[in-house]
Specification:
By secondary structure, the protein is of the alpha/beta class. It is built from five helices and six strands. The longest helix has 14 residues. It binds flavin mononucleotide.
Length: 164
């Protein structure tokens, strides 16, 4: 029997890497999935996206989210996934953490990146949600997202959590 029930996988992804990991986590633990999306769309062009994201970060923007969760109360475990953008979470993650109170929930963070991993984002999540329990995170390199080693890493990470 699982110790906790009703996990939710929350993710933000622009080029599909984090989404791919999110989908595999959701399949493994039979979770609902919520994609963080913004009213203002991000540039398709990569260089423009880099600039746009850096400006958002510099201005500590809180982009408006276009989708919302009605019943966050019913979830015990929140898998929270995002790409590393300029050494931080994309700013829509901060919008998400502002909008929802995750006190008393367990957060399992996962990141995809070109190699920076989490940078300081675990501490940022902890300071945004001081009453949540933040477990060890899963970090995947973008070039490895589709490798079978990533499937094994997801499996081990979930097993090691002791929650499923
Ligand atoms: C705006 C932007 C900034 C990025 N900054 C970093 C970074 O600081 N360190 C890093 O390792 N990768 C960085 N990357 C690479 C992404 O983290 C990586 O490709 C990620 O897997 C993309 O996830 P996605 O496909 O879910 O959007 C950056 C990518 C973008 C678009």
């Amino acid at each position: 029997m699982p110790l906790l029930s009703d996990p939710l996988v929350v993710y933000f992804s622009r080029s599909g890497n984090t989404e791919s990991v999110a989908e595999r986590i959701a399949e493994r633990v039979d979770a609902d999935v919520f994609e963080i999306e913004t009213v203002q769309e991000y540039p398709e062009n990569y260089d423009e996206l880099l600039d746009y994201a850096r400006n958002e970060q510099r201005s500590a923007a809180r982009p408006e989210l276009s989708e919302h969760i009605d019943d966050i109360e019913r979830y015990d475990v929140i898998f929270l996934g995002y790409p590393n953008w300029w050494g931080d979470m994309p700013m829509p993650l901060y919008s998400f953490l502002d909008e929802y109170d995750l006190s008393d929930k367990t957060i399992m963070p996962f990141v995809t990146s070109g190699g920076s991993g989490f940078s300081r984002t675990i501490r940022s999540i902890e300071s945004e949600e001081p009453e949540a329990t933040v477990l060890d995170g899963l970090s995947i390199r973008d070039r490895r997202v589709h490798d079978s080693s990533t499937d094994r890493a997801i499996e081990e990470w979930i097993e090691d959590s002791g929650l499923f």
